[in-house]
Design a protein that fits this description.
It contains six helices and nine strands; from the N terminus they run ααββαβαβαββαβββ. 44% of the residues are buried. Helix 1 packs antiparallel against helix 2. It has one domain: 3-Layer(aba) Sandwich (Rossmann fold).
Length: 217
């Protein structure tokens, strides 16, 4: 079974990522190493490397591999950074970020998902990862500034708290918009100013919180 998953993972990287424009070799290597099937329920393991999101419980999903790769590539990390992840989910993207950065803080609203993800990450030996339960829309000011911030849920607008916690030369990737019309945005902090660009149309679950949506769609 493990060998089959390895074949499927290599195929995912080649066909879903590299062939569709993902060029960052560090991101590609990380996604070839991290075992996505470990981060989904047993009922969904047959589709672990398929080209679509999967449910993970609590009304949440693990994103399509291509979208994850686009977000990580946009962060352009080189291994020495401190990163904040908003929306731990199953822990899959957390494990990938840990491959690409020095220190990772991940905030999850659901205590159930946070604890399951924490156990998985620990079992896989992911070092320098801290999973916290809380309102991710407010970030983690006591650990700021962050060299990179990645948000795995859609906000009505980019949370000001996260912009304030971005370090100089830092990058923030966040989906913005309502349920059926979201845009993946990249914000760079350069010389104290924020420069934003649009990356891709996307579809995420809502970011619930004080600077997100008050409740689901």
């Amino acid at each position: 079974m493990t060998d089959r998953f390895a074949v499927e993972r290599h195929r995912m990287v080649a066909d879903q990522l590299r062939a569709r424009g993902i060029k960052d070799e560090r991101v590609l290597a990380a996604m070839d190493r991290v075992l996505r099937h470990v981060f989904v329920d047993k009922d969904n393991q047959e589709d672990a490397y398929a080209d679509h999101p999967l449910p993970i419980g609590e009304g949440q999903t693990v994103s399509q591999p291509l979208i994850v790769a686009i977000m990580l590539q946009a962060l352009a990390r080189r291994g020495s950074e401190k990163v904040l992840e908003v929306g731990t989910g199953s822990g899959y993207q957390t494990a990938l970020v840990a491959e690409l950065a020095r220190e990772v803080y991940s905030i999850e609203r659901s205590e159930v998902l946070a604890r399951v993800a924490e156990d998985r990450l620990r079992d896989l030996g992911c070092a320098d990862v801290t999973v916290l339960v809380g309102d991710g829309s407010l970030g983690l000011p006591e650990r700021a500034p962050f060299n990179a911030i990645v948000v795995s849920a859609a906000a009505p607008e980019i949370p000001k708290a996260l912009l304030e916690q971005l370090a100089e030369d830092g990058r923030l990737v966040v989906p913005v918009g309502p349920a059926h019309s979201q845009e993946l945005r990249l914000v760079k902090k350069q010389h104290g100013s924020l420069v934003g660009t649009s990356l891709e149309g996307c579809r995420f679950v809502p970011l619930i919180g004080e600077q997100g949506y008050e409740k689901g769609w």
